[in-house]
């Protein structure tokens, strides 16, 4: 009995394989103490200065149950600071520290290299097409749509 192609060669298994390869390259070339999602949070904060949990969740595509402990680890390492919003005590504002900004600056070249190497077997056009199609698939899945017409071009 043969397995359907989707079991081994479908979107889910291929996405897991690419994710595994990304994590392996990241640990080897960037930092084995800072994960890709942690780096993403720091990079967003470096670009935006500060953000609340909801905005960070949206910008990094991390759900709050993942983001909250991730932020706690970054705060323990002194890479971010979390403080109550002066205007709304229920909101917590996250900002990057000098140590966090320095780390992002140091790791950015290696992080970019991982992205290039992960898709290195593809031409530049193929990489652009793949990323466009992945965004479309992600947007469609997030909106519960099997066929999505959102285009990020």
UniProtKB/TrEMBL annotation:
GO BP: any one term: response to stress
InterPro entries named in the record: HTH_MarR-typ (IPR000835), MarR/SlyA-like (IPR039422), WH-like_DNA-bd_sf (IPR036388), WH_DNA-bd_sf (IPR036390)
Record-annotated HTH marR-type domain positions: 1-139
Classification via SUPFAM superfamilies: Winged helix' DNA-binding domain (SSF46785)
Gene Ontology molecular function, alphabetical: DNA-binding transcription factor activity
TM ranges: none
Gene3D superfamilies: Winged helix-like DNA-binding domain superfamily/Winged helix DNA-binding domain (1.10.10.10)
Name of the protein in question: MarR family transcriptional regulator
